[in-house]
Sequence to fold (124 residues):
Amino acid sequence: MTPAKIKSVAAAALFTAGIGLVSVSDSQAAGAGCGGASWYALTSKTASGERMNAARLTAAHRSLKFGTKVQVTNKRNGKSVVVRINDRGPFIRGRVIDLSKAAASQIGMISSGHASICYRVVNS
Fold:
């Protein structure tokens, strides 16, 4: 096998392996899912360019468009809140959304710092 052919085969293998890394489930593609959530309260700018305000009902999600409204429900107590996506994250395995402190407070997860949640897009 020539060096050029080896390079081509290697590139194809990496591309194929990479496809599995970015695939999403049907429910995630449709704007719904379950997993872990955490909360944060920074004063820096968010990925959308606006300043983080812990008193607003906002959240970070890895792929939903900025401005998307999402209903987040705490699976332990059934409490829900509607948040607006304005940041990217979370970057911890198993977590699907990071909530502002105000949003976390409304669903009763401030003291624990994290919760098991389900979310669904309510408007995009």
